[in-house]
Design a protein that fits this description.
The structure holds two protein chains of two kinds.
Chain A: E1 2-10, E2 16-25, E3 30-35, H1 41-48, E4 56-61, E5 64-65, E6 73-76, H2 88-93, H3 101-114, H4 130-142, E7 148-152, H5 160-177, E8 180-184, H6 188-194, E9 197-202, E10 207-213, H7 225-248
Parallel strand pairs in A: 3-8, 3-9, 6-7, 7-8
Antiparallel strand pairs in A: 1-2, 1-4, 4-5, 9-10
Chain B: H1 6-18, E1 21-22, E2 25-26, H2 34-48, H3 60-73, H4 75-107, H5 109-123, H6 130-138, H7 142-166, H8 170-178, H9 183-219, H10 226-235, H11 239-264
Antiparallel strand pairs in B: 1-2
Classes of the chains: A alpha/beta, B mainly alpha.
Chain lengths: 249, 278
Amino acid sequence: MLAAADLTRTYRNGTTALKHVSAEFAPGSITAIVGGSGCGKSTLLRLLGGLDRPDGGEVFFDGEPVLRPHPAIGVVFQEPRLMPWLTNAANVEFGLSELPRALRRERAAAAMALVGLHAVGERWPKELSGGQAQRVAIARALVAGPSVLLLDEPFSALDSFTRSTLHEHLLDLWRDIGLTVVIVTHDLDEALTLADRILVMKPYPGQIAARFDVDLERPRRRGTRALEAIRQQIADLIVTTANVESLTS
Amino acid sequence: MTSTLPLAAHADARVQTRRPAVGGRRIALPLGWILPIALALAWEGAVRSGWSNGRLMPPPSRIAETLWALAVSGELAAHVVATSVRVAWGFAAGATVGILAGALTGAVPLARRLLDPTIQALRAIPSIAWVPLFILWFGIFETSKIVLIAAGVFFPVYLGVASAVLSVDRRIVEVGRAFRLSRPALVRRVLLPAILPQTVTALRTGLGLGWMFVVAAEFMGASEGLGYLLVDGQQLGKADQIVAAILVFAALGKLSDAGLAAASEPFLRWQDRHQDGI
């Protein structure tokens, strides 16, 4: 299990991005982290992924401290961040350098099929649409077979249709592989569509303001009374914490 | 002297790839030839019609005759080989040191703070100012010439590589870290491919400067080489020989630049370039 224990992160400029943040991410769950700008969502995700070190507290995976990027934790960034000099297939293979070439190719093809991409492996990233590029990035994160997938606003730059399609792909992957998913988003609808649990963060310093369990069947239809009730509570909370901070700061 | 700017070569490539493909091959309109051919024909006509005597600026036909005579006697080949070998050695040395120093100052902040200010100050010194010192240090023969060319090549390559390393996208480097690449693997798999386009541009600029500096080097007292042909032509009042040598410089510069561009092209196909102009 992935867990954050009492994390604090202060940047060189003195900004405390996170203060005493603790959370546990149950195996096979989908957790969405939401909140206004500057509330430390992405900082928390980077710490969970071992991409940054906390000033206080620790991240644990299966009881072991995460001190650097962990092979069982895949990360998908806000932008696809594909290597433009590698073909799409080679981008997916990027995380498998220690394996023989034939095996790498086989696994990369399987990972691309998993995200619904076929016949683009030998093309360049520049030839992909935004949605396709992000799917290649997801395949790259999945190719080494992680048990946790961290996603940092991965669909924010995509149109609503592509976003919905990728939500379905992500849910299919989650069901098929049994992944633990942690997704940072500022889109409440996205959080409500995907997550079992939503962590709402507040800024200055970044802390978890509330946790909401979303015990609703999937697929979830927007606009239903139950979803709207949770949505309204979260939206009110985000506005309140932002207003309180702006009044006190 | 010649310095084919990479930009011009890219522009050529754009013009050539604009034409529709016929039978699987693209038709390249040689637009770049129109202006020089028109100027040559106009000047030939001006001399033949008596408008100019062509003494200080000979007509193309006389230059062609001089070139032919130099080629038939074997003299031209000897001069071309001498100059090309100097440029090759100077370019190899200057580019190697430039790449290493640029990579070092680009990647290591301490090295940047220690070395870059001095290198930037040295860069501001006019190339010709080095000539007396290089002759004192390395003598009048080949070493001083090659060192001068290497100095000319070094600065643009250094600057290009250092700025390329500094401008590598932090987010791409983070992907490498996310996949637990070791530092050498990060350099090999992320940094080097990322800086390749700017490095190629820097090398092409350096090569162009190498052809410029070889002239200054051969003015230092060479007994063969295209620079020697220039000096000899000036001393004997042979304008046709001077222009012939200049044209050979232009051809060699263009050919070497095209060779470098062609050699690098397979490694840069991934670039997302605008092909049709702005």
